[in-house]
Specification:
The complex is a heterodimer. By secondary structure, chain A is mostly helical. Chain A has helices spanning 5-8, 17-35, 39-55, 64-83, 91-100, 102-116, 120-130, 136-143, 147-174. In chain A, helix 3 crosses helix 4, helix 5 (91-100) crosses helix 6 (102-116) and helix 8 (136-143) packs across helix 9. The radius of gyration of chain A is 18 Å and the shape is globular. Chain B is built from eleven helices and 22 strands. Classes of the chains: A mainly alpha, B alpha+beta.
Chain lengths: 175, 492
């Protein structure tokens, strides 16, 4: 099978802005809110995604869902860079983790920290797969990359994560 | 922790927030703000489009958004062998001022503009008499004097074009009296735009006799531009032949190439980068204080403008806004110089500095620790209030940098009146005439104040754009009234 994610993006969409907004507002907000804290800021960024989409709707090619998520992805990256801070857990998440026990909460924090150490592209591809349950073809459309390129990013991300986990597990055993 | 636990922990740690109506409310709020600003923008764009129209020809529309789109409008003249189209702008006192005359005869074109600019087109070749150099600049292989489409001059074709270019356009067709005779009248308008065109066409031939552009001012439609089409004037082929004796021909490529060669031969100062060097090739200051800096940064990739490579400051403490310029990117030019593509940066005083005062201008650049050039970036997104259509200039503040001086020059007097001649080689669309450039400067100032969220000054400069003589026929409008725009945008 030949994957042509980039070629597919040249097909104009017949969806109107309002239809896309109704259909994908929850998905875009979910995407942003997983990555941006506090919630108010995630709301602002999600809103800005749709304003930008409205302004540039005539340029839309391909599936609106992936186009919107692509805009959201860039906005999240910009916001994270500007904030110069790592993603943090939601208060509710942290509380839930605390109830589940100190060790569980620590593991969650550790997992998030490992993801944050990944290069931007690897991190984005990995999280689109894990959090958004997206197949590789869809990730390719969001990231404007080829199927092979996304596959490579995912492989490298997993390898790097596994290596970090191995090191941490060894250190945990030895200590 | 194993890999499966890891993924589960990621899902737990980065769970999505519960959706709420607050996101929808924020989107609605920002879209409302954007739409209002967009309407004003549209009006300004229309003003610029109208300017382009006068140059381009007989099709005036208030709904075209950019010069490039305007260029596509010039069409073939099916079934019409000869026509003279004269454009005038209508002053507030009702008097009329010549704007352009476009003559057509069996495939030949002649375009006369008020500043004695003369353009001929015949058989795919465009001839421009250039007074500055006394040469005729010849460009071949063109589809039309402007560009081409398959439209004809018939009313049906014109209205079809409007519908195709802008689906929101509303058309009203009826019969009206025009200079004592019964004609077809077609009105094409966009409900969100306080501009419209009115076409008067002959009943029998369907050919337009007059095309008016109207602007809604203080609640009523006012004619601001009139283009008349005369099909009866006798024309001879001789009047469509350029005078190559008085103005010897030079190919456009050669003309541009010579000018670029002259430009890149200068070296006003440079600094080494991790790849190549940043070198300033030219510095000019116009009479209103606008600063032009031309430089090369070693970049050889013919990509779209990536932002400004330099900044300027002066000893008067002037604050500058930036004007977006499409820099010269074609590979031929890049290949001629070892220092990469030629980039033009235009710095506009946020308020004009007049009368003239001598000043010392310093060109600086920001370098990152690895000597990578830290460019001044631009973006279309806006601030938290939902202002999204401005040209925002910014630096990526997360990077470490140092500022280095590259060139410094004392200017006792302005070196150019409006803009340097080489500017039109770098961006012919922007630097086509002084009034168009004035509009662009006013837009940049408006963008600057929008960035500061200084609405009063932003609107002051937006008004300046609309008041420009080229766009309104020297019509002094009371002001851009938001109520006009808002009223007009209401659903009917």
């Amino acid at each position: 099978m030949i994957h042509t994610a980039r070629a597919e993006t040249t097909v104009p969409s017949t969806m109107t802005f309002m239809e896309a907004r109704i259909a994908y507002e929850p998905i875009v907000f979910a995407y942003v809110s997983r990555r941006i804290r506090p919630r108010e800021e995630a709301e602002d960024i999600a809103a800005q995604v749709f304003v930008d989409a409205y302004v540039q709707w005539r340029r839309l090619r391909g599936a609106p869902k992936y186009w919107l998520l692509g805009i959201a992805r860039r906005k999240v990256c910009d916001a994270l860079r500007k904030q110069r801070r790592l993603w943090s857990l939601q208060e509710g998440d942290a509380q839930a983790c605390a109830l589940g026990g100190y060790m569980a909460a620590a593991e969650v924090r550790q997992a998030v920290a490992i993801v944050m150490q990944l290069p931007d592209d690897q991190r984005d591809a990995f999280l689109l797969q894990v959090l958004e349950d997206m197949p590789i073809d869809e990730i390719a459309q969001v990231m404007a990359r080829t199927h092979a390129s996304v596959n490579s990013l995912l492989q490298r991300a997993r390898t790097r994560i596994q290596r970090t986990l191995d090191v941490q597990n060894r250190e945990g055993l030895s200590s | 922790m194993n890999y499966q636990d890891f993924e589960r922990n990621i899902r737990a740690g980065l769970a999505a927030s519960e959706p709420s109506d607050r996101v929808s409310d924020k989107i609605d709020q920002r879209l409302a703000s954007t739409r209002q600003r967009r309407t004003i923008r549209l009006r300004l764009t229309v003003a610029l489009a109208a300017t382009a129209c006068l140059t381009v020809g007989f099709l005036v529309t208030p709904i075209v958004r950019a010069y490039a789109e305007m260029q596509r409008m010039a069409g073939a003249l099916d079934n019409v062998r000869s026509v003279v189209m004269t454009s005038v702008v209508v002053r507030p006192d009702g008097s009329r001022q010549f704007s352009a005359r476009i003559s057509y005869l069996d495939g030949r074109w002649k375009i006369e503009e008020p500043d004695d600019k003369l353009i001929y087109f015949n058989n795919g070749t465009r001839y421009v008499h250039d007074k500055a150099t006394g040469r005729t600049i010849v460009e071949t292989g063109l589809k039309g004097p402007f560009t081409n489409n398959d439209s004809s001059l018939s009313l049906t074709s014109l209205l079809g074009d409007f519908q195709r270019w802008q689906p929101r356009v509303h058309q009203t067709i009826d019969q009206a009296e025009f200079h004592g005779m019964s004609v077809t009248r077609a009105i094409a308008e966009d409900p969100t735009d306080p501009h419209r065109i009115v076409i008067y066409a002959a009943l029998d031939t369907d050919l337009p006799l007059e095309i008016d552009q109207e602007t809604k001012e203080n609640g009523r439609w006012v004619v601001t531009d009139v283009q008349t089409c005369d099909y009866r004037t006798k024309q001879t082929v001789a009047s469509f032949v350029p005078d190559l004796q008085a103005f010897p021909p030079i190919r456009k490529e050669e003309y541009d190439s010579n000018r670029v060669k002259q430009l890149v031969a200068e070296d006003l100062g440079s600094v080494l980068l991790n790849k190549g060097r940043l070198v300033v090739r030219a510095m000019d200051v116009a009479s209103d204080g606008t600063v032009f800096v031309t430089c090369q940064s070693g970049e050889r990739v013919p990509m779209w403008n990536r932002g400004y490579p330099v900044d300027v400051s002066d000893d008067l403490g002037t604050q500058y806004s930036l004007l977006y310029v499409q820099s010269r990117i074609d590979p031929e030019v890049i290949a001629r110089s070892t220092d990469g593509k030629v980039e033009l940066c235009v710095f506009i005083p946020t308020e004009p500095i007049q009368p003239w005062r001598p000043r010392r201008i310093t060109v600086t650049a920001r370098l990152q620790s690895d000597l990578v050039l830290d460019r001044h970036q631009w973006g279309m997104w806006g601030n938290r209030s939902g202002q999204t259509e401005s040209m925002i200039w910014y630096y990526d503040k997360s990077r470490e940098f140092k500022v280095v001086d590259i060139a410094r020059r004392q200017f006792e007097r302005p070196t150019v009146n409006t803009f340097p001649t080489y500017a039109s080689i770098i961006d012919p669309a922007l630097f086509d005439d002084a009034s168009h450039f004035d509009q662009e400067k006013a837009k940049s100032r408006a963008d600057f104040y929008r960035g500061l969220e200084d609405t009063a000054n932003e609107f002051r400069w937006l008004n300046e754009v609309v008041r420009s003589p080229k766009s309104t026929g020297e019509r002094t409008m009371a002001e851009v009234r938001l109520s006009d725009i808002a009223d007009h945008a209401k659903p009917k």
